[in-house]
Amino acid sequence: MTANYLIWLIAKPSQLILLAALISLLCFRWRFGRRLGLVTAGLVVLFGLVPAAAWLMAPLETRFPAPAIDGDVTGVIVLAGSERVTVSELHAEPHLTSMGNRLTTFLLLATRYPQARLVHTGSAAESRVARSLILGVGIAPDRIRFEDQSRNTCDSARATRALVEPQTGERWLLVTSAFHMPRAMGCFRAAGWEVVPYPTDYQRGPTPLHFQMVENLADLDLAVHEWLGLCYYRLRGDTNELFPAPKRL
Hints:
This protein is α/β, with parallel strands linked by helices.
């Protein structure tokens, strides 16, 4: 468990709201506690009912539209993140998270382009789950490669490029969640590889109004995590763009 993971576990908006609520209960006998309780209730209403999550998520999900693929495809890359590692190991079969569309889209593209080379990139544990699913549905083992040493998105970009050694003129599709695509494209470009973004796993429909408190807070966590990730990668020098955009032809 990395320090970055622990920091984010505490810094999630939903976790901070819960922490504030607990503190307000413990300190309710004092004015500070009562005021904090009012602030906490206001935050729950603001972020749980008002579509703040949708407003933050929309620019991420619409940054890279789904491409119109015309012609041959050299290969398809899918980023890990949809594998439920612990549950999969416990029940000895692959289980996916709510981001499972990453792998289902990857499998659809593998069928649509039967000559394309395939790559799954992520950690060793994630790769074990993905391998079980991908090979289990009939993908030939000699057609796919598993990059299993990455700790984050930019690790995946660099390691995958070194693994497949793409040549000039080749077309590689990159599959990941739509909200994650700007950060992923920034990493692949920083690695010197202009892949074709193929977003999937959209979290929101065309309307931002969605009065489901728990789902709104979960989406808020996702959106804030992604915006912070974009800033962190840029400040650390892992990417060359703060908010990558499609290349103009």
